[in-house]
């Protein structure tokens, strides 16, 4: 009778043996690292700095993207911006130097009257001026606006009132102050009804805006608002800086853009303006910030490559130091692949440990910055952590192959003779 033994060549047993071999290699690698802590730490330093830098810089880039999205969404999702001039090159060189295009207050009124997809239109004149009250003065931005401006930009008045339609039509010399301007000129006293001078022209203060802060680097609190027609007189111009238009809903943005385009072409006889939607602005900003994030991440990744070269160098030294040990292992039956895997696992262990320490430092610093400076846009993303760790392990594999191959190719007799 033939006895059938348990088939030892089952695939799962191969897997167990392989796993045990890997764990043993990791244990040997950790022992080798712990036997020379300073050298191991210096070897890992490049990887630590690389992963740390990648996570920190990508976190700042991701935070900036989140900040831009939040700021854009904060002013509504149905905003269109009409600016003079066409942001597209066509035709030959300009014939006349006086080719600057312009938008006018009448353009804004025409859009407001004719467009069914636009609910509010805000023509804007922008300038700078010295605002003065008694012996205090401040150079600041002056915006000529209409009542709809605060609706379109989601701004609110804290005390008093904003520029009204009557103020615009009557070209009244009244103004609403931002918080910073009010504080600088009047301190804690009430400025309502007081007269200030803007470029030596007297204006009566009718309101103070709620604190808004900085948007896209533009301090809303450091602005003086006056009626748009008064601003045109003050700066002796009939041009507008831009026109803001709010579509009736987010779904109507494309239709609003189409209608505004047709209406302005009808008035100007050509498309000499540019309309930008919030989606386009967001896409453009995200594209720039994504490119910037990848560039910063790539620069930081150079540290990982430098760290990999350091790992390869130290592994070559390790092979040289342990040549006799390699000879003994081969003499007792170790195969070429065993030596190869041992040194490769050691290289990967060094880079993985470095990556882990870099991740802890990077995430810690990013979260520390976000906690200490709430205004600083920092967002730690999982994909950047996985990417940095994966790249650090890849560096260990890539730069560990050559030393491991060199060790595995050693002749056992020559290796045993090595002192």
| Element pattern in H and E | HHEHEEHEHEHEEEEEHEHEHHHHH
Strand line-up of the largest beta sheet: 2-3-10-5-7-6
Structural class category: alpha+beta
Average pLDDT number: 83
What is the CA-CA span between the terminal residues? 57 Å
User: Beta-strand level of the residues, as a percent range?
Assistant: 15-25%
Radius of gyration over alpha carbons?
34 Å
Largest sheet: 6 strands, mixed, barrel
Segments where pLDDT lies below 50 for 5+ residues? 1-6, 89-99
Q: State the helix count.
A: 13
**Shape descriptor:** elongated
* Number of separate strands: 12
Report the helical percentage: 55-70%
What does this structure look like?
The chain has 419 residues and is an alpha+beta fold. Helix content is 57%, strand content 17%. It contains 13 helices and 12 strands. Strands 2-3-10-5-7-6 form a 6-stranded mixed β-barrel. A two-stranded antiparallel ribbon has the order 8-9. The chain is elongated and about 105 Å long. The two termini are 57 Å apart.
Please describe the structure with a list of short key phrases separated by commas or semicolons.
single chain, 419 residues, alpha+beta, six-stranded mixed barrel, 12 strands, 57% helix, disordered N terminus
Strand and helix layout:
Elements (H helix, E strand, L loop, with lengths): L10 H25 L1 H38 L4 E6 L20 H10 L3 E16 L2 E10 L2 H5 L4 E4 L4 H5 L4 E4 L1 H8 L8 E4 L2 E9 L4 E2 L2 E2 L3 E5 H7 L7 E6 L5 H16 L4 E5 H44 L1 H9 L4 H37 L9 H27 L3 H6 L2
Parallel strand pairs: 3-10, 5-7
Antiparallel strand pairs: 1-11, 1-12, 2-3, 2-6, 2-11, 4-7, 5-10, 6-7, 8-9
Helix pairs in contact: 1-11, 2-9, 2-11, 2-12, 3-8, 9-11, 9-12, 11-12
